[in-house]
Description:
This protein is α+β, with helices and mostly antiparallel strands. The chain contains 5 helices and 3 strands, in the order ααβααββα. Strands 1-3-2 form a 3-stranded antiparallel beta sheet. The longest helix has 25 residues, at about 130-150.
Amino acid sequence: MTGARDAPPTVAGDAPSTVAGDAPSTVAGDAPPTVAVNALPAGGAPAVAAGRHPTNTLNETVHQRHRLGILTIAAEAKRAEFGYLREALGLTAGNLSRHLTVLEEAGMITVEKGYAGRRPRTWVRITGHGREALAAELSALTELVRRHHETSGP
Length: 154
């Protein structure tokens, strides 16, 4: 697999965690946000144990930062060229190949090999399943951001 530095790309253009029971940190004089510990669903188990927290829906295959980058770039274009992905994500060819293999085996992308003129090229396309997985991941991340803004105040 070779990159295309001379050809234009096909595409245009840690947050700390809190464990149950930990007190949130405060800024001098600020009261910590209230956590609804007493709001238990029927059966008495906390909502997190019931699978309701957005982090429970994060997909380990998609969530890895380079694979998330591959999927978002591929979703923005008809297809993304291997060399463009390599440079945009700052990966070696071998690292990118490995991430593409993981995504391809999960059915989230297809990899096409061909030629642009006489030069061999590799293109990546996102599949319907890949689009659904990406949308679910972004939805979970959006919900986490929304919750954070609600609890962090102005």
